[in-house]
Amino acid sequence: MTKRKYLHITLISFVIGLMLAVQYNTVKNPADVRDTRDIWEIRQELSEEKKRHSELLTSIRGLNDVVNKYEDAEFNNPEILLRDTVDDLQRQAGLLPVEGPGLTLTIKPSQELMLYGYQVEAVPPELLFRLVNDIFRHSGQYIEIDGQRLLHTTAIRDINGRTTINSVPISNSNVEVKIIMPSIELAKKLYNHLLASSFMDEFYLDNLELNINEVENRINIAESNTTLTNTYLVEKNKGD
Amino acid sequence: MWLPLLGLILGIGLGILTDIQIPAIYENYLSIAVLAALDTMFGGIRAQLQQVYDDKVFISGFFFNIVLAAGLAFLGVHIGVDLYLAAIFAFGVRLFQNIAVIRRILLTKLEERRIKTSEKSAESR
CB 3.0 to 4.6 Å from A187: which of A90, A181, B41, B108, for a disulfide? Predict the structure, then answer.
């Protein structure tokens, strides 16, 4: 009797062990997820990566140029170059006015809807987000909306029903968006992209009319008038 | 005494060496079945220690619990209620209780043995 009992217990512990091991196997090495993308999807992903690759290469080339300039000017006058870099950084931070090729957009309330008595409302911040993101995605360099230069710290948001940029409310009726691009070709590209995009329809849904003006050779954007608060960096005295 | 342990080790070894895997959708059922099996095994050990072990109860309990747990999980999946949680809860609680009882019995036995040996040594003195 005891022998049979032990046999049964052994058998059952064998089954338990087997089940534990199978469970362990299953949890430890989950079956490979099958790749079900077709060649077209893979190509598309590849093209995205290629795009990033070329962007990285462009920025590497830019930095290499700076390095070369530094190396060339090492014996001549490094101060000029340093000044250049500082100017460049200040331009990026919005402390200096910039000019370059680009285009302007105007956002106005739609005329025919105004005749029917529709109310003029502020440009919704979501639309501006999308517009700005799209411009930056197409290598936009500097943007100004209704006199407010967009910086890295700029917030476009709704405060008490008014759309504000840098916490300054923008006007409801005639909003001018200035865009500076790195080159005239890119500006033309952006112009065509904006014309072909659905932005005009999107703005029209909010009773607004988006006009995309022709590319210009010279567009000026003033420096930002917001003060940059800086918590961690301390300015050293000159000559230190 | 060592035979069941040998069986367990043999089972684990065989399972790992053969690298058997089950489809991911049945993973839940297997985990519940493992829990049920562990519960039955500890229940068996407890019964043995309390001298109320019955072969029939043990074997039937093993298979019945597994089937019931897997069946509950299956039903739960089909009616959209996580019934397998009920099984996990029940088996988990019972597992802890069984282990606690086993621990107590072992402790009492150890204590008895200690007293016996001390008595023996006192007698021999």
Answer: A181
Domain that holds residue B53: 25-123
Chain A contact for B37 (CB, 8 A cutoff): yes
Q: Verify whether the Cβ–Cβ distance A8 to B3 is below 8 Å.
A: no
Which residues of chain B make contact with A25, given a CB cutoff of 8 A? 15-16, 19-21
A16 confidence band (pLDDT: 50, 70, 90): confident
Bridge partners of residue A163, in order along the sequence:
A158
In a domain, B112, yes or no: yes
Q: How far apart are CA A138 and CA A219, in angstroms?
A: 18
| CB contact (8 A) between residue B7 and residue A11 | yes
pLDDT above 70 covers a percentage of chain A that reads: 95
Answer whether residue B13 is part of any domain.
no
A74, A234, A237, A221: which is closest to A148 by C-alpha? Answer: A221
Q: Considering CB atoms only, which of A12, A18, A27 is closest to B14?
A: A18
Asked if residue A210 lies in contact with residue A107, where contact means CB atoms within 8 angstroms, the answer is yes
Among A108, A102, A107, which residue's Cα sits nearest to residue A179? A102
pLDDT at A240 over 60: no
% helix, strand, coil for chain B, step of 5: 85, 0, 15
* CA-to-CA dists, residue B108 to A15, A68, B98, B111, angstroms: 31, 84, 15, 5
Q: B20 lies in a domain?
A: no
Question: How much is the pLDDT for B108?
Answer: 92
B11 → closest Cβ in A7, A13, A29: A13
> Chain-centre distance of CA B97, in angstroms?
11
Q: Look up residue A94 and give its two tokens.
A: 């919005």
Is the pLDDT assigned to residue A237 strictly greater than 80?
no
ipTM: 0.80
User: Chain B: residue nearest A4 by CA?
Assistant: B55
- Break chain A down into helix, strand, coil percent, rounded to 5: 50, 20, 35
**Number of domains making up chain B:** 1
Enumerate the residues of chain A whose CB falls inside 8 A of the CB of residue B59.
8, 12
